[in-house]
Amino acid sequence: MFKVLREENLTKRIVYQDDDDNFFTTLRQRVNDYFKTTGLKKQDDPGMYRKTVLQLGMWGGLYACIVSNQFHGWFLFLLQIAFHFTMFLMSVGIAHDGSHGSYSRRPWLNKVMYRVFDLIGINSHMWEYNHNLSHHHVPNIPVYDSAIDSFGLFRFHPRAKYYRFHKFQHRYIFVLYSLSTLFKIFFLDFFSIARKTIGNVQVPKHSVGDVLYLIFTKLFVVSYTLIIPILVVDVPAWQIVAGFLAGNLVMGITLGIVFQVTHLSDHTVYAEPDENGIIHKSFPRHILSTTADFAPNNKIITWISGGLNLHVAHHLFPKISQVHLPAVTKIVQQTCREFGVPYKVYPTIFSALRSHLYLLKKLGEKEEYNPAEWPVNQSGIEINY
Asked: Which residue pairs from 46-51 have beta carbons closer than 8 angstroms and sit at least 24 positions apart in sequence?
């Protein structure tokens, strides 16, 4: 049974023990050699620029079709869904790279692309705390990792408080995933900006400008995605609202799947720091134990997910553009094989989903958690060299 950390320990910074036996040194050298040999750049890849132009063009073009008042009925409804799905593509295909500095070597351009989050209802300022600072350094560490904090709605880790309704979480998970973008637009960012800590990250007092920017961008997104179409398109308002809701449901469930299945599967583990905040393994080995890839050979899913299906490489090298993650993933696989480091991968998105649901089901069945008692689910593949 997991020990309960005292609240004051949350202020301790997680420290990883350096015990990788040159594993990451070799891996990093091979990745650097790949870029030297090919002459490619880790950022500023022409493929990212083309992807940006295409996705922004899709976003603008679909919106123009919606407000043109030329389309009605089911076709308008489908246009709204496609429009919101394009917003999902922009979040993982443009903004996410900008937030990690992997879009460009020029900080100002990363910042511009980072702001794409604000165009789709995700506050870029709070994303820094909710994702970059309180997740990337501490994935799957209970209480520290904000990505597995679900306000009690789910039991994503064994230290989360157990409620009887968690017994059904593997059944209602997709319903609540589908509401995630609406939750983000109308609640989470406002709640986050009022918090003093997110995970174990101390949040400083926000400026008046930060608060006003949050309010303005939320009003802007609701205005152009909902209010303006209601005003300019000659259909009953309920039809526009229905398309807005359906589009957000599609965007929400896609975001939920892409971001959650890579850390929450029956092969990933939860790490516990000691009383001094020390994790007794190196950070790269921690990533490989808590993170899994899915559909690594599916180019369509890789493009749609912004390379986040290749999550191991992304966490190990967050400043490398998503364009290069397929090649970097192959280097990771080879190096893991040589060093005998377990690398976790699911061949399809469906096998990853099965594993995700299996974990949720087990977490909902018992209040105490002992992974040694759990049989290994064969819905996914765990490569142990």
From this structure: 47/323, 48/97, 48/103, 48/321, 48/322, 48/323, 51/93, 51/94, 51/303, 51/323
